[in-house]
Amino acid sequence: MRFLPLFFVLSTLGLYAQEKPALEPTGNAKLQWFRDAKLGIFIHWGIYSVKGVGESWSFHNGAIPHAEYMQQIEGFTAKRYDPAAWAELIRK
User: Fold this and answer.
1) What's the structural domain count of the chain?
2) How far apart are alpha carbons 53 and 55 in whole angstroms?
3) Which residues in the chain show pLDDT less than 70?
4) Residue 47 forms part of a structural domain
5) What is the pLDDT at residue 45?
6) 10 Å Cβ neighbour count for 88?
7) What is the domain extent for residue 72?
């Protein structure tokens, strides 16, 4: 009688085994397209980067007050902005 629960558990282990379906030919084409497409990058850069805040909605999230957020515009000059250097770095 003690072995009945153990037998039941062991006999149901195979119920979760599932066969993986083979990729359709269109699936292989989609994977190849993804490999060929490479990686896209979106850079969001703004006044919040003056104080190193991680994102532009920081005042909505309570990280800094709105007035303090807006004061950062005085320090945002973008004098070292070099899109060609960024593109080269991303290309690597």
Assistant:
1) 1
2) 6
3) 1, 14-17, 23-27, 39, 53-56, 58-60
4) yes
5) 77
6) 10
7) 41-92
- How many CB atoms are closer than 10 A to CB 69? 20
Examine residue 18 and state whether it is found in any structural domain, yes or no: no
Burial of 48 (0-12, 13-18, 19+ CB in 10 A): buried
The structure tokens 């515009």 sit at: 73
* CA-closest candidate to residue 56, choices 43, 40, 69: 69
Q: In this predicted structure, what is the pLDDT of residue 88?
A: 92
Q: How far apart are CA 3 and CA 41, in angstroms?
A: 59
85 in any annotated domain: yes
State residue 84's pLDDT score: 94
Helix (H, G, I), strand (E, B) or coil at 23: coil
